[in-house]
Amino acid sequence: QSVLTQPPSASGTPGQRVTISCSGGSSNIGHNPLSWYQQLPGRAPKLLIYADNQRPSGVPDRLSGSKSGTSASLAISGLQSEDEADYYCATYDDSLNGWVFGGGTKLTVL
Amino acid sequence: EVQLVESGGGVVQRGGSLRLSCQASGFTFINYEFSWVRRAPGKGLEWVSHISSLGSDIKIADSVRGRFTISRDNTQDSLYLQMSSLRVEDTAVYYCARGWSPDAFDIWGQGTVVTVSS
Q: By CB neighbour count within 10 A (0-12 exposed, 13-18 middle, 19+ buried), where does A93 fall?
C-alpha cells in the first residue's frame, strides 16, 4: 500500500486530454513539492514535472502539473501513442523521513 | 554527457550480500545528493536510501533499515549501496538517481538487476 494514492490505470485516444491524480496527506503532498515521472517499458524513469508544476527543459508543454492541498494531478493533452507508459508521483514525507512514490498509473493510448 | 551507470547486480541466495555501484560522469559529482530507488517485478517505484553531497546526512527506508548501507566516494564520482541479509522481496531493478532541488530526481541510471533466490 503506497503512501501516495494513484489510480492503477488510465486511458485515452490520440489527441485527447487525460489527467492522472495523486492523493496524499499533510506530511507529504500537503507540505512538500511534488514531482512526476514517466517510465517506459524496460527504461529508466524520466522526470516530467518538479516543484508541483515546473517542467525540465525538453519536456513538452502539453504536459502540466498542478497541486491543491494534499492532492495533485498530471495532465497530458494532445495524447500520443508514445505517451503509453507508467506514471508516478513522488514527494518527501516528513513523518517517514524519506521519499514516497505513488503506486503508479499505467496509461494506455487506445 | 550527464550520465549515471549502475553495476554490481546479479543473482544471490537469500541471506547473502551484494554491493551495487553507480558511476557518475558529465557533471560535478560532489555538488549533488543521490538516492537509490528500486522497482520490484510487477510493482511500482520504491525509494530505498539517500545521501547528501558530503555524505553527512543519510536517510533510509524502513524496509531496508539495518540491512542496506548507502555511501559515496567523491574522489571517484561513485555512489554505492551495500546490501546484506538479502530477502526474496529485495528482488528488483535498482536505480541510482541524482537529487534535483527541490525533492525531485532529474537524472537516472539504466538500472541493475538484483535477484534474490530462495
A: buried
How do beta strands B112-117 and B10-13 pair? parallel
User: What is the average pLDDT across A76-86?
Assistant: 97
Q: Taking the alpha carbons of A66, A67, A73, A74 in that order, is the dihedral positive or negative?
A: positive
Max Cα distance, chain B (Å): 41
Closest Cα in chain A, distance from residue B28 (Å): 19
The greatest distance separating any two alpha carbons of chain A, rounded to the nearest whole angstrom, comes to 40
Helices and strands (H, E) in chain A, number of each type:
0, 9
* Cell reading at A56: 525540465
Q: Which band of pLDDT confidence, cut at 50, 70 and 90, is reported for residue B101?
A: confident
- Segment A80-91 shows an average pLDDT of 97
Encode pLDDT of A24-70 as tens digits: 999 999 999 999 999 999 999 999 999 999 999 999 999 999 999 99
Chain A: closest CA distance from residue B42 (Å) = 11
Contact at CB, B103 and A33, closer than 8 angstroms: yes
Contact A101 B47 (CB under 8 A): yes
* B104 φ, ψ (degrees, to nearest 5): -120, 175
How far apart (Å, rounded) are the C-alpha atoms in residues B62 and B26?
A: 32
Per DSSP, which regions of A1-110 are E strands?
Answer: 9-12, 18-23, 35-39, 46-49, 63-68, 71-76, 85-93, 98-101, 105-109
